[in-house]
Amino acid sequence: MQCLERNVRESGRDYALRTLKENIVTLQLEPGSQISENELAAEMGLSRTPVREALIELSKVKIIEIFPQRKTIVSLIDYDLVEEARFMRFNLEVAVVELVCNEITDQGLKRLQENVRLQNFYLEQFNPELLMELDNQFHQLLFEIARKPQVFKLMDNIAIHFDRVRNLSLSLTRDLKIVQDHENLTIAIGNHDVEQAKRLMERHLNRYKVDRILIQEKYPQYIK
Predict the structure, then answer these.
(1) Are 64 and 55 contacting, i.e. CB atoms less than 8 angstroms apart?
(2) Average pLDDT, integer, range 156-170
(3) How many CB atoms lie within 10 A of CB 209?
(4) What angle (nearest 5°) sits at the alpha carbon of residue 210, between those of residues 176 and 22?
């Protein structure tokens, strides 16, 4: 497991939750793998209580399965849950990109353009981990520009199922259209073209369906 740097004033529970989510999405903690509360606490330099609280929180969104007195495992990929997460993101992000088209400022547009520039750079270097981080930042930026940051935080909880599949897609192929999607979205937003931006976002969030067969063929042990 990769331990993240703890933020100033971040509680033990929040740090454990953020670290576990990151490791689940990046598959440092693989689907189906068994995890130990004691070992996780030792690795993160925490007591068992905040780790247990984080695991319970993750079990509520079914990304962790806890079998009392027996074991705790990282859930296998369940495409029903992936689809639920995609459905939520689809409806929220299509609505948000409409707001962004109507409210975008020069400063907001520059932030999106800089993010896309970095995505193109790391695509050429083929660094899936940084691409995933920048991908997440791009979508978070849209919610910040639309002045809906708390909605993004709420969505982010169940989106972990969708994000794990997105990360697998990034690791499997270099011929990605995701960065091009973001570039086209930024152009549409800069042009205040609401209908084009909504169409692009719809296509972007449906891409995982194309990758599903590839993921199942490459990692059948990860699928429920």
Answers:
(1) yes
(2) 85
(3) 13
(4) 65
Return d(Cα 40, Cα 18) in angstroms, integer. Answer: 13
Q: Please, how many CA atoms are within 13 Å of residue 150, restricted to the half-sphere of its CB?
A: 0
DSSP 8-state assignment for residue 4: P
Amino acid (1-letter code) at residue 174 = R
45's tokens: 């330099």
DSSP per residue, 81-114: HHHHHHHHHHHHHHHHHHHHHHH--HHHHHHHHH
> What residue spans of the chain are helical by DSSP H?
12-25, 37-44, 48-60, 79-103, 106-125, 128-145, 149-158, 160-172, 178-190, 194-205, 208-218
Cα–Cα distance measured from residue 62 to residue 180, given in angstroms and rounded to the nearest whole number: 32
Q: Rounded to whole angstroms, what are the CA distances from 212 to 28, 73, 207? A: 20, 23, 9
d(CA 212, CA 215): 5
- Helix, strand or coil, per DSSP, at residue 223: strand
> pTM, whole model, 2 decimals?
0.80
Span 32-45, average pLDDT:
94
Per-residue pLDDT reduced to its tens digit, 189-205: 999 999 999 999 998 88
Distance from C-alpha of 160 to C-alpha of 182, rounded to nearest angstrom: 20
Residues in the chain: 224
The pLDDT score that the predictor gives to residue 200 is 94
- How does pLDDT run across 102-155, given as a tens digit for each residue? 999 999 999 999 999 999 998 888 777 788 889 889 999 999 999 999 999 888
